[in-house]
Structures are given as structure tokens and as C-alpha cells.
Amino acid sequence: MYLQGEFDYGLPEPPWRPKRPERVFFGLFLHSKDHSRFADCQNRLCGQCGVTGDQLLPERFHVSLQHVGDYKRLRSKILFAAARSGRCIAMAPFEVTFRYASSFPGRPATRGKPAKHPFVLLADDGPVCELSRKLGVEMLREGLKASDGFVPHLTLAYDRKLVPKQPMGPISFVAREFVLVHSLRGLKKYVFPECWPLSAM
Questions:
Q1: Cys bridge to 24: 19, 35, 53, 68, which one at CB 3.0-4.6 A?
Q2: Alpha helix (H) ranges present in the chain?
Q3: Which residue spans adopt a coiled-coil conformation according to this UniProt entry (predicted)?
Q4: CA–CA distance from 141 to each of 28, 79, 97 (Å)?
């Protein structure tokens, strides 16, 4: 089982934390057996596209499904409502396939800081979008905000360069569970309050 209570990102600790340091989201994380394949893909694509910025560690590779929110101080009622939303989901395991790489517009260059754009793998539509939609419906029922603009992707790196969308050899992983994530922004740490298996219905 890949999931642990928390893990470090392995990047140098920043000297500050953002104004809203507590982030909560739902995500799909790769199993450890998939890390090396995606790390090889990361190194190959970054080399081909001239991406030289910070690369994510394989343990951080994930697809975000729904963003619950960023908070100055996370209240237990938010985690409670999010957990209730996750418990209502019933779906079978499914494959997530990526066929394109691209950059998303990220932080622009400001005050001497370089631009910081996510370099990502773009996934096919399908069950992953259905899972995001179902979570959104349950989140709204629990009084949380939900996004309907889901673009399934997996971030490989952050760079000042914007890479146009381009095809790549497909790479896939099988999603067998999804998790509720509490990200301690600025402290390089994820905490996983809950995890739900995807099982045949």
C-alpha cells in the first residue's frame, strides 16, 4: 500500500508560509510500483522540452480531483464535510491514460521572481472526470464549494517556460483508491485524513 500518514516533498524548506497555508483536496496518487515509469517519463519529457525548473518527486505524483479550499486555519467541520462527501462515492477501479504534455499558465514573473508554470501530463476524459463530477455533487450537498472546470492532469515540474501542448507516447496507471489530502503549504508535507477504495460495483 503506497499511502502513508504523511511524507516530505524533499525540497528545501521555504522561509515563509502563505496567508492561507492549509489546503484540502481530493486526489488520486500513484502506487509505488508506478513511480519509476512516470519518473522516466518526467526526465525524458523535461529533457525534450527544455524544462529545467523544479521537478516533483515521484511520491508527489497525483491527479487532483476536487479542490476543497485553502484556509488560514482549517476547521474540523471542513474535514468532516469533505469526508462525508468521499464516503458517498461508489466506483470501480479505472485506468488513467495520459497522451499529451503541456504547460499551464501559472504564476507570472513579479518583483524579480521568475515565472512559475506547471508542466503537466494531460489525461484522457473518462472515469476520472466522472469521479470528479460525483465528488463535486456530494461536496455541494455538504455545503462545500466544488469546481465544474476539471482538467485531469499530473504535474511533473514547475518552470519559467511555457510548453505548448504536444503528443507523447501514452502512459497509464490504474486508480484503485482516492484520498482526502490536507496539504501543509510551505512545510512540504501532505497528511491523508481518509482514503477510500474503488471497488467493483
A1: 68
A2: 32-49, 76-87, 127-141
A3: none
A4: 22, 14, 30
Domain that holds residue 80: 21-98+119-154+171-197
The C-alpha atoms of residue 32 and residue 4 are separated, in whole angstroms, by 11
Angle, helices 127-141 vs 76-87, to 10°: value is 130
Number of C-alpha atoms within 13 angstroms, CB side, residue 21?
12
Answer for the pair 49, 119: CB distance below 8 angstroms, yes or no.
Answer: yes
Q: Which residues, in sequence order, are CB contacts of 36 under 8 Å at separation 6+? A: 58
Question: Which triple of cell numbers denotes residue 11?
Answer: 525540497
How far apart CA 120 and CA 171 sit, in angstroms, is 13
Burial of 63 (C-beta count, 10 Å sphere; 0-12/13-18/19+) = buried
Q: Is 89 exposed, middle or buried (0-12, 13-18, 19+ CB in 10 A)?
A: middle
Residue 52 lies in a domain: yes
The answer to the question of residue 162 being in a domain is: no
32: which residues sit within 8 A by CB, 6+ positions away?
A: 2
Q: Are strands 94-103 and 22-29 parallel, antiparallel or unpaired?
A: unpaired
